[in-house]
User: What shape does this take?
Amino acid sequence: MILIRFACLIACVLCLAACDRFPESYAPPEQRHPVEGFNPGPEAMMVEMSDPDASLHIVKDIYGPTDPSWRWTSQNPTVQLLVLSTENLKFHADFAIWDDGFKTTGPLEIAFLVNGRLLDKIRYATPGLKQFEKPVPPDWLSADADTTLAMTVDKLYVAPKDGVKFGVILQRIGFKSR
Amino acid sequence: MIRVIPVLFGALFTVATAWSLGLLLFRKLSLVFHVWEERLLAFVAGSACLSAILFLLSVTRLVRRGILLVLALGIIGYAVYSGAFRRTGKPLPPVSPLPRLWRWVFVVFFAAFTYVGFFNALAPEHSPDGMSYHLSEVLKYQHAHGFAPITTDIYSNLSQGIELLYLFAVDFGRYSAASLVHFTFLVVLVFLILSYGKRIGRPEVGVAAAIFTYACPIVLLDASIAYVDVALAAVLFALFYLLQIWDENPDPKMLVPIGLLAGFGYEVKYTAIVAVPYAAGFIAWKLWRARKPLLRPVLVVSLIAVSCIVPWMVKNWIEVANPVSPLANRVFPNPYVHVSFEEGWRAHLTNYDLASRWQIPLQITVQGDHVEGFLGPLFLLAPLALLALRFRAGRQLLLAAAIFGCTYFSNIGTRFLIPVVPFVSLALALAVADIPWLLLTLVILHGITCWPDVYDLYCAHDAFRIENVPVMAALRLQPEDAYLMQDPEYVVVRMIGSAVPPNEPVFAISQGGQSYLQRDLLVGYESASNEVLQDILWTPVVRAFQPTRILTFDFPPRELRKLRVVQTAGLPHNQWSIAEMHIFNGQNELPRDPGWRLTAHPNPWEVQQAFDNSPVTRWRSWQPAAPGMYVQVDFGRPQSVSSVVVQSSDDTGDAKVKLEGMGADGAWVTLSDHPVQSRQPIRASLRLAATAELKARGIHYLLIKPENPGSDDLRRYPAFWGLSVAGSVGDVRLFHIK
Assistant: This one.
């Protein structure tokens, strides 16, 4: 008899387990107001060579970090990044031409490209720190796909020891708002 | 080295308490065993009793060190006082003596593999599942002094009979004490196998099978970490053993420990539910053959087993509305586990990304990389165990192996074969026992091929295995922290611990070393609410999730009380979802009135996500789209409506929907079944919307590993997501939502 009672109790518990105890209907929730347009701050569209995740932006010709703040490039340093706004942007690059290399290569001509289109080509006749900035036509850019930024260095310094080729010393490359 | 003392104390105290309880139970029932059998079986039965006591303490939130100490000392003291430890068992009947060679074989191999297993168990615990759930649940219960309702982790819904023993051990000796308790189950299992060999008059079979089991790489590894599979194997073998004893001497009191262990199997692991019909069926069959009444014995065993099982079901029912969670979510729909998760998980566990099931034999015996471990090449000979069918004992062993192994294909991980290993080992040894030199050769070859330096030569490079014997770390001559820092998961949780304020949850896509983290790590797949967070996070980076598909229903203005969008297609490979549902009267959208009542079928609990104006949230069916699913609005009063716009996404495939309305007459009528489909560009910043939504749900930190989907985008564009890097370890990033 005790066993039968026990069995009934367990059966009841299992039946109760099948009961639903949650509300089946709900009132409309608090309404969200998603941001339209985009203003993430000036640093968002810049690839800093000091960023540990800079490698995720690099497409080619930028060597691994040898210093926390800069990286050597080869001939066609190329990065990709996202722009959500296509208006009022300028290509920005901070780089340096190495003194010792310059003695070998002489003046360098560097082309700056956006999505494969030539934005400008500049001749640098002295070594040292350089900065390039130029507005980018909005129709060259797309807000829903990665944009490719590239530099092309006409002459490379070739290390006599191992034959490795070096272009410029890159600190940052990307877009800034005008 | 002094730091190892609490670890050993925690483990020994747990084992002593369990053992005392078992002996007291046997004395209370006046059961008489052979001496060694009594000692070994008492530990296993006592573990079931201790687990039950800890369940009660956990329910009442009384798991406190002082209470455990007093309780355990009381149990041990009473056992000593009542003479439970006194030798009362009878010796095993005399059998042909074990040749000295076999004794030495056992001593040598047992000592060698004990060296490997014991020091691994004693070393700081950092196993994948141990850290991510077995012990992380223990940590939560320890903080809560008992069961803490956990609805964001499916693993806490599994039965945790052994984890409760770990809770006891960890309270005194930290995590290594838990591993040592598990290792004790292996030692007990090995001696039970030896003892069984003696019982059937074939002691050399017992020795061989004990070594087959003990040296088996996955068994030794599993036993040396805070998993539960070897404990389950010990419980099931003890159950088998008790049934064999009962078969020889059908003492009705023996039914109590039989029922207890049959139920305890389920408490250790769901898959051991088969132990209940096995035990009940065994007893029924034997009694029927003997023409004796069988109803009462079968009921006694079944009810004792069920009384062990039901508390776990009730716990789940109360906490997550599903007594067998995380399974059977179609039968017990609930807001905590999605049907799609369960079905995907189960599909994965039956396949483990193997190209073909024909890979299983080599994977589980030799390679071990896809199925998380290997048994050793000896088990390629497992089919030879069928030759043991010619013996009565062989038939019993193979029957048990078949029954306990029948759930294997629900999870083809090698660990899920561990409960079968003792039975197959004994049957295999029995099958070749008439050729002593062959049996001895197999034992020696198995011992050699299962030595870590040797199996490194043949197993897959990343097979789950013991790789070394960390003696210095085990003895704490190497600091615990220094040893654990070799594990990347430990380094990551240390980083989280230093960067995230207390009580702040961290959302992650994949598991980690939670047992060393005093924060709540919400893992993407581990609950319905976590899956929603993951869906939100992935919407900006997965175009198919984005609400670009627009379905517009236009119809002559009507007065309606209710309105619903109904799915009419069955899509086995696509879920149905609605990102937003807008209702218009003419050109004007009806404002979402607080008096509206929203519902959906299935998954009514997430229906608000189709009415929150967020482009990154959506109501999802979380199971394949099927005719009859709907999302419904009850206006509460008649409302003039002329069009409905449904925003959906491309991952809904060929979903087909119709719009139904209910007027004053209370009857549903179809308003339109041919919506105009169009596309809309996304204007909002989905990345910012996603992180804002996570923040609104209380998540301020994200842990992203490089292998996680979407990690590249998060790491490339943290500013676009409104994130800053709060910490990093290698390519792992901890982001803070600004």
Observations:
- Residues 493-538+685-737 of chain B form one domain.
- Chain B is about 50% helix and 15% strand.
- Chain B touches chain A through 57 residues (CB under 8 Å).
- Chain B has a mean pLDDT of 95.
